[in-house]
Task: structure prediction
Amino acid sequence: MDMRRKRVAPLAPDERRAAIIAATLPLLRDEGLNVSTRKIAECAGVAEGTIFRVFPDKDSLITAAIAKAFDPQPAIESMNAVKGDPDLRFRLKTAVRVLARRFHDNVPLMVAIRASGLAVVTAGAAQAHEGLTLITNALAELLAPDQHQLRLPAETIAALLMTMVMQNSRNEVLSAEDIVTVVLDGVLYPGVKDADTTSAPPPAAV
Result:
């Protein structure tokens, strides 16, 4: 039996590029944009020179990694997957979970971008903003079939949900169900009447 180790076929250029980007993103989130290409190469399992055969320079790699992180399409596709479900709450809870994961992953990256002082900051911030707009529009489309049951326009509710998820990503005190319940039902217990919410007047001074 031939016990010699077979040589592993090299990755195709697109696969190699994707693998390097995948190895780069966690480092950018953990260590910032000034992480060395040597460390990126170690995490990617390639020689440092391989990076520069795939990307012309480090800034190009960072720009590509940021573009990957802020690509709105995966989130939009996940929301579109439940678009036809008749249960509004289920659709929204699914969307909130998708968005919560996205913000959880990207908040450290945004902090790193702002702290870096590198030229990719402007491009990264612009791409993040554009991605949020597209995702908010997709969220509004998720609400649209039930617009007849909603007191506010779907676009307004979508923006409110996005704001809540973004704020919650800092400390994650609310679950997806909590966020959807607050937006759809408010914070009063079911059955509480308007009169029950009136605070009692302060006692008269003696």
